[in-house]
Design a protein that fits this description.
Length: about 220
């Protein structure tokens, strides 16, 4: 799994979100790689009209009905949003909400990606059996210094910690990934995929940078 988190970067404002999503969709199809995009909340359903996997950057625990201003799983599912990031370093939530959302998403058949800041959290939240645990050391996010090179042990230790849960949860990693080589290193360390923001959103040529990442996946992917 290769996930592009658009965050709220100026570069993806307005129709640029559609342009970047189209580039991801094209490369995914060309190289038969699973690429998902996380656009800003207000553009989720717009992007979901494209042939691309769309995840939310965050979803709330509010119930359906009179819950003004919250964005919830049951409703975004109806707009073809297939899953969500949870507990991203820039949008942390209480463990009680993570537990509730992972179970609701499972019931809805939606993909849950629980972001964690260290190995302890990876071990703790893998017991909830989300589809993915995404390890992202906060100090490397947005730096261009790749987790797979700066802190390789945090990936291997997270993979081992998640294995202890003896369930289907897979490990993704993110933070500072900016090149195909960073991606290859992450996959060699046992991650089943990556999360990236700056390395692609702020690239001069979106198609070229997404393709560089996709080719690294193809080369290193364990079938
Ligand atoms: O969710 C992905 C993100 O936090 C990684 O950020 O900009 O270092 O790729 P970045």
């Amino acid at each position: 799994m290769f996930i592009i988190n658009f965050k709220n970067y100026e570069e993806i404002s307005g129709s640029n979100t559609i342009k970047l999503s189209r580039a991801a969709s094209k490369i995914a199809k060309k190289h038969k790689i699973k690429i998902a995009v996380c656009p800003p909340q207000h553009l989720l359903s717009e992007v979901a009209k494209l042939p691309v996997t769309v995840f939310a950057q965050h979803l709330d625990t509010s119930k359906t009905g009179s819950t003004t201003g919250y964005v919830i799983p049951e409703l975004v599912k109806k707009s073809k949003i297939l899953g969500t990031l949870l507990n991203h370093s820039e949008h942390r939530i209480p463990s009680s909400e993570i537990e509730e959302l992972v179970s609701r998403l499972k019931t809805l058949g939606m993909i849950s990606i629980v972001c964690v800041k260290d190995v302890n959290e990876a071990e703790k939240y893998s017991k909830l059996n989300p589809d993915y645990i995404a390890i992202e050391p906060p100090e490397l996010i947005g730096t261009g210094r790749a987790v797979s090179k700066e802190r390789p042990e945090i990936i291997t230790n997270s993979v081992n910690a998640v294995k202890k849960a003896k369930n289907s949860t897979q490990v993704l990693c993110g933070a500072g990934i900016v090149s195909g080589d960073d991606v290859s290193r992450a996959l060699e360390l046992g991650a089943r995929g990556i999360l990236v923001a700056r390395g692609i959103v702020k690239a001069d040529n979106w198609q070229k940078s997404i393709e560089e990442f996709a080719l690294a996946f193809k080369k290193n992917r364990k079938v």
